[in-house]
Design a protein that fits this description.
Helix content: 10-25%
Order of helices and strands: EEEEHEEHEHHE
Strand order of the largest sheet: 1-2-6-7
Largest sheet: 4 strands, mixed
Strand content: 15-25%
Shape: globular
Distance between the termini: 32 Å
Length: about 200
């Protein structure tokens, strides 16, 4: 049975119509790639990595203004201090399981280094979500090669949520934008608990 979308149930957020496929990739220039790992031995693994690549894969060269807001504070995301200080997103955003955040960070850095780009450091944005109910997090199954595969697979076919409005906002306005979006997000995900923090980026 296919999972119903909110609009199929008569619920809608905001006043504007959705894009053609009602997905993040309706936003021009957003690419999404996945690499899923499924094994039953030696450990049960149902994990992977998702990458969100803005600017038609030119994000490494054409940086975007960005801000963040953390609701509740439980959960990890790398690169937030850089966003707070500089206000720029300099590479793809990745989402993975809790214990895989380091491997995914390494995967994004190694991809940038392989691109011979004109700067000498990278502070990727990598967010985690606990997938221990589905997968053995101690298996450390996600490795940098999976990040590279997800980047290669980046395509317009995902319905994840990312806040990248096409608005002419001043740099100082970016941190407030994700914070103000959460009331709408909580309508669709009403549990905002300390055990699973919601993040806006």
């Amino acid at each position: 049975m296919q999972r119903a979308r909110l609009r199929d149930l008569g619920l809608s957020i905001g006043h504007l119509p959705p894009g053609p496929i009602n997905a993040i990739t309706d936003v021009a220039g957003i690419l999404v790639g996945h690499q899923t790992i499924i094994t039953d031995t030696p450990a049960v693994v149902r994990s992977g990595v998702t990458v969100i690549v803005p600017e038609d894969d030119q994000i490494w060269q054409r940086h975007l203004f960005a801000g963040n807001h953390v609701l509740n504070g439980n959960g990890e995301m790398t690169g937030l201090s850089f966003l707070d200080e500089i206000g720029l997103l300099c590479g793809p955003i990745a989402i993975t399981g809790t214990h895989s955040i380091g491997a995914v960070h390494e995967g994004l850095v190694s991809q940038e280094l392989a691109g011979d780009l004109p700067f000498d450091f990278c502070l990727p944005v990598v967010a985690e979500t606990f997938d221990g109910w589905l997968s053995d997090p101690m298996a450390l199954a996600v490795r940098p090669v999976h990040v590279h595969a997800a980047l290669r697979a980046a395509a317009g076919n995902c319905g994840d949520t990312l806040l990248i409005p096409e608005l002419p906002l001043a740099r100082r306005s970016w941190p407030a934008l994700p914070a103000s979006s959460f009331p709408g997000c909580l309508i669709t995900s009403p549990s905002a608990s300390r055990a699973e923090a919601e993040k806006g980026y």
